[in-house]
Design brief:
mainly beta; Porin; 14-stranded antiparallel barrel; 3-stranded antiparallel β-sheet
């Protein structure tokens, strides 16, 4: 089968995926990224302040600045356990942050400082490498074509099913007997996927220091999404007598682009003016994204029964697909204190209900809503039901500390825990009456587990210059399914496709260079 898969590369056809619950969840996700100092303390600086990256976690924390600051950050990222695929390597260089803060003293009795800041940071890194091969005999010879045949039966014909199911029928992978669609068995499959790109964030902040006891701030953030993905999936086919009868492969390339916007308001207070102890609160609006996918499907197949190679559709066929995503509200609380003027400690908690995400379309009608609302958008009701069923509230905990060894040397450490946003029994449902199904050309999905992050860092000061270095290790696992098909129609909720446990761990070494004056 691998020889056949390699031959499919020569076709250089491509396709993309429509939006789904997994993509919506990822657009709502936030990495631990920014300056090396911020990451080194686990991002738990929303009440401690004094760092460029806090304008994205608590806008009020920029109000603690009393000097100007400019800094830039780059890193080396490694994905342990991942393998090179389609020319993409598990180690790469990342540019993570650049920004500045302008701190302006005030002559007023109450208003001590008013500060302005602009900062770029990498909000989310899409880079990912996945590989999986399965012997399907132990899974009852389960095949992706089982799911595609079920879709044709469910929608009343191949011409009414998903584009991938239509291509499978045209490529002789599905049969038809009295209006009932039948499928092949499979002896094995091979799956590889490379994804790259980032969700870039640009923060614009204004904040104020009132009596050195109250701090307020506002940040407006613009997002720019650029993601590309390539996937190759193939199966070795068996006929009804379990004799080898050919192969097929789906060769996928996608491109997601778009822009988004959200706002954050923050507040910090010293309950006791003479104490360094501070309490912070942050409220973040949903992010509103306008997104576009390029859709260009291709499937190659060879079956002995037809003794013919079929490639569908032509490589120059594509479609641009536009839609909107709204992410959840987020609320965060933070605590910070400095002990003996040497040890700074921070802790944070953030909650976001991912089930409240929604997908909509500009000037688009689905089968349930024939009335445009005031801003000419219509929600995808059936897809939003899937979001409500399979996405859930997430809890993020951050802890961090910084020890001043000498006025020129600092040691840091931190920890994060992020609970999963996706239910364990979630799956990619193409049986719903949603516009997303009309352009669905993939069946694979990945159910992610929780995230644990560990950080350690060091900081050096040279007069007004400073340099910070941090190591971040992120541990996460997921369960990958190439398709979803029931071996027994009487038990449709049991997926016959083997589950592949995959590692999504990352190791990142960061360096920040800055100048404070």
């Amino acid at each position: 089968m691998k020889a056949f898969l390699c031959s499919i590369f020569t076709f250089l056809c491509s396709l993309t995926f429509a939006q789904d619950i997994y993509q919506v969840a990822e657009l709502s996700a936030t990495d631990l990224n920014g300056t090396a100092r911020y990451v080194g303390m686990g991002g738990a600086m929303s009440s401690l302040g004094g760092d460029l990256s806090v304008m994205s976690s608590n806008p009020a924390a920029i109000g603690l600045y009393r000097r100007n600051d400019v800094a830039a950050t780059a890193s080396l990222v490694t994905m342990p356990g991942s393998h090179k695929f389609d020319g993409n390597k598990p180690t790469y260089v990342s540019f993570d942050q650049i920004g500045f803060v302008c701190s302006i003293p005030s002559s007023g009795n109450s208003l001590r400082y008013i500060n302005f800041g602009i900062n770029y940071h990498k909000h989310h890194d899409f880079n990912q490498l996945l590989n999986a091969d399965n012997n399907l005999a132990a899974a009852g010879y389960a095949s992706q074509t089982w799911q595609l045949a079920d879709l044709c039966n469910s929608w009343g014909g191949a011409d009414k099913a998903t584009p991938l199911a239509k291509m499978a029928y045209a490529g002789h992978l599905l049969g038809e007997d009295g209006g009932n669609y039948t499928a092949y068995n499979a002896w094995g499959n091979s799956y590889g996927k490379a994804r790259w790109g980032s969700n870039h964030a640009f923060d614009f902040n204004i904040s104020a220091n009132i009596k050195d006891q109250f701090y307020i701030g506002f940040t407006a953030t613009a997002y720019n999404v650029k993601q590309k993905s390539y996937m190759l999936y193939g199966e070795g086919l068996l006929d009804v007598d379990l004799n080898k009868d050919g192969d097929y492969a789906v060769d996928n390339y996608s491109r997601l682009t778009g822009n988004g916007f959200d706002m954050k308001v923050g507040f910090i207070v010293r309950p006791v003016k003479e104490s360094n102890f501070k309490v912070g609160v942050t409220l973040t609006t949903p992010t509103w994204y306008e997104l576009s996918y390029r859709y260009d499907p291709c499937l190659g197949s060879y079956t002995k029964s037809y003794d013919d190679v079929v490639v569908l559709p032509p490589p120059d066929t594509y479609l641009d697909y536009d839609y909107n995503v709204r992410t959840p509200w987020k609320v965060g609380v933070s605590l910070g204190n400095t002990f003996f003027n040497r040890l700074a400690v921070g802790a944070e908690y953030e909650f976001a209900d991912y089930s409240s995400c929604s997908v909509s379309y500009d000037d688009f009608d689905d089968d349930y809503d024939w009335n445009f609302n005031w801003n000419h958008q219509t929600k995808d009701r059936e897809l939003n039901k899937q979001l409500d069923n399979y996405l859930k509230g997430t809890h993020t905990l951050k802890f961090g500390a910084e020890l001043m060894v000498t006025p020129n040397l600092y040691l840091r450490g931190g920890y994060n825990h992020v609970t999963p946003a996706i239910e364990k029994d979630a799956w990619l449902n193409h049986f719903i009456n949603s516009a997303s199904v009309d352009v669905a050309t993939n069946t694979d999905y990945l159910n992610l587990g929780g995230i644990n992050r560990y950080t350690a860092g060091i900081g050096l000061k040279f007069g007004k210059f400073y340099a910070d270095a941090t190591w971040l290790y992120q541990h996460q696992r997921g369960t990958l399914y190439a398709f979803n098909a029931a071996e027994d129609p009487a038990v449709p909720d049991v997926n016959a496709c083997p589950a592949n446990r995959v590692s999504l761990n990352r190791s990142q070494v960061m360096l920040t260079m800055g100048y404070r004056f």
